[in-house]
Amino acid sequence: MQVAVEMGSLTGGAPANLDIEELLATRLLVQGNSGSGKSHLLRRLLEQSSQWVQQVIIDPEGDFVTLSEKYGHLVVEGDRTEGELAGIASRIRRHRVSCVLSLEGLDVEEQMRAAATFLNALFDADHEFWYPILVVVDEAQLFAPAVGGEVSEGTRKMSLGAMTNLMCRGRKRGLAGVIATQRLAKLAKNVAAEASNFLMGRTFLDIDMARAADLLGMDRRQAEMFRDLKRGNFVGLGPALSRRPIPIAIGAVETQARSSSPKLMPMPDVAENVEDLIFTPDPEEFNQLPQRRTRPAPRPTTDILAELSRATPLSDAPLSKTNDKMVAPEISAEEREASISNVLEEILSDPQSGYRTDSALYQDFLVRLRMRRLSGSPMSLSEFRRRVAIARSGVDAETQDTETWATALSMCTMVTDDLQGVFLMLAYAAIKGDTCPSDARIARAYGTHSARRARRLLGYFEEQGLIIVHADQSGKRIVGIPELASETAPGAADEPDVISQSAEAAE
């Protein structure tokens, strides 16, 4: 199906159309200095095409979150763990929901890692979910820099790899990259070179004008025209636009960014007590100190090596040699299961394990199995996730043998893998009649420090009909699970998590 959206008008007043179906196959590069109208152009494209194609916007400044008000885009805050972002991206791809990944408030390195995690999850989706998506990346030079900057080399490679996958290999997976940059010279060449459609706006530096002219197939003497372009005017070229360079004046938009260009306004009258206003702090300022999100410190290499050096084979019997290979003695199924349980317990005993991704924990699990020379095929990732979810619930052996717990296990399959541990923890507390877990404890079980996300999880479970949340007369929270015919004892939602506090104190 051919769909053309009107981006604006040509010199003579004729409409300037962009073929969305062709754009999905050929990608788009937008370039222009700050204030040239790039964000306005992207907003026009997103508004005009929102009814035809799913959209994902990587938004470093939070300018595009206003699309949610009129067009229903889901706003995803970037201050989440990598596991959360990957899970959200996977579900967005599966359910075809347009979204804005807002990275406002994060530093550059955190923005790069969050964007890379999100894009990689979109790229790694199962084949059955390869629906077409318009992936718009504003300020693309941040995520695909031409040279290394102040960020770590690992972060730069991770972000650049995700952007390269998007522009070079994303087409077969339904991902159509639309990237916007202030300067072509700052954007990695292998990322920019994969676009076949171009919209070039105002720019002043000779190197950027020369690259823009080269991409549009123009004579370098014509590059001076880019200095004279007005705000919101671009020169377009490409199979989705035109076979020859054409000037386009971008049309109006229906939504506005939260931020806008500064406007001149008269200065206020000077107050008589200006010194008191400036030098005397407001009491409320002490309660509004900015809080920066901190990542858990990586485990020292020496600690890991010490653990590996302490690991010993389960059996004291000597290793046998077969075909020049050392082979561990055979052990019974019961011994093997006991060893696997011990390894899982060792991994999850680390207070920071809740904030590591399942894939990282799984790799750690496989290494420890090899160190113990456990024979047999390793546990699959899906089974490992289920065992981890059960272990994190804290269930005891007696409860595991009950029909009520079997019902809880069957119910947890109604949610995604990353939510099963939280649900089982609530189910176990309800079965035993224990105190309702606090927001901090629920957040730790989900792998985050955000109490707000913990409350959202409870709301999600309640929307799915899995739990009922209510309060007693003192305002303490109670979680009931109708299918289990049980509920938790009242508990304070704002009670701190003892384990997290102990871990922080130890660090």
UniProtKB/TrEMBL annotation:
SMART domains: AAA. Residues 487-507 are annotated as: Disordered. SUPFAM superfamilies: P-loop containing nucleoside triphosphate hydrolases. It comes from the Bacteria. Residues 24-284 form the AAA+ ATPase domain. GO terms for molecular function: ATP binding. Keywords: ATP-binding, Nucleotide-binding. InterPro entries: AAA+_ATPase (IPR003593), ATPase_Atu1862_pred (IPR014588), HerA-like (IPR008571), HerA_central (IPR002789), P-loop_NTPase (IPR027417). The keyword Phosphoprotein does not apply. Signal peptide: none annotated. This is ATP-binding protein. It comes from Ahrensia kielensis. The lineage of its organism: Bacteria, Pseudomonadati, Pseudomonadota, Alphaproteobacteria, Hyphomicrobiales.
